[in-house]
Amino acid sequence: MREKLALLIELQKMELAAARISARKKELPVRMNELEEGFKALCAAVDGEKEKLEGLRKRRREKDAQLQSGQDSLKKTRERLFDVKTNKEYQSMLKEIETFEAKNSQIEDEVISLLEELDRFESAVKAREGELAAQRGQYEDQKAKLTEELNSLSGELEACLRKGGEVRNSIPAEILRKYDQIKNAGRGVAVVSVWKEVCDGCHMSIPPQLYNELQKSKALLTCPNCSRIIYWENRNG
Ligand SMILES: [Zn+2]
To answer: Which among 94, 144, 214, 228 could disulfide-bond with 201, CB atoms 3.0 to 4.6 Å apart, if both were Cys?
Structure first.
């Protein structure tokens, strides 16, 4: 019986490992997805800021062109001053020049504040791009690790299932049936150790007589409280 128990324990070990690996295999794609989504969101945020920066640059070019044309108009009007014949015409032209000057000065102020905004924004975007580059490295690393783990899990799972199947084949059907019955009852493990009369599955004491019997290992015994298959584990040795 000791040998058969050892096989059952080995089978349980393989099946528990297979279940653990399967759970991890299901979890990994979820983690991978979270990782990808997080990085995509960061990329989108940085792209949004770059677009805003482009918008500011465009406005600056527009303002520059506006100022240039204002200055051209001012220059032309000043030149025309020399051709003026009447005082009335002269006065009206001076007024026109004043208006151009005021307009140009307003645009200049706008350009200055736009330049300040651009300065701030450019360094902010630069910092964000640096952050993104660092994050990209981390993201690629983590992704590679997850992929590698996922790949190795398939092999590990296959090995556990194969070994489990082999062990199953060398256990008598009657014992297997009992094992599967307890396992499928949904209480986790089916085979548990007992030490100093305490069942490791339910943590209750088993009768001393049963404990004595268990140490001799002549029959397949179960815990009277939780019905799991029990074996004696000598924790002194
Ligand atoms: Zn028990």
So the answer is: 228
214 CA to centre of ligand 1 in angstroms: 13
Burial string for 148-182 (b: 16+ CB within 10 Å, else e) reads eeeeebeebbeebbebbeebbeebeeebbebbeeb
Dump pLDDT digits (tens) for 43-98.
Answer: 999 999 999 999 999 999 999 999 999 999 999 999 998 898 999 999 999 999 99
Reported pTM? 0.71
Domain residue ranges of the chain, discontinuous segments joined by +? 13-170, 175-232
13-170 sits in which CATH class? mainly alpha
State the distance from the centre of ligand 1 to the C-alpha of 185, rounded, in angstroms: 14
Q: Rounded to the nearest whole angstrom, what is the distance from the C-alpha of residue 152 to the centroid of ligand 1? A: 36
Q: Which amino acid does the sequence have at 213?
A: E
Q: How many residues does the chain have?
A: 237
CA of 150 to the centre of ligand 1 (A): 36
Going from the Cα of 189 to the center of ligand 1, the distance in angstroms, rounded, reads 11
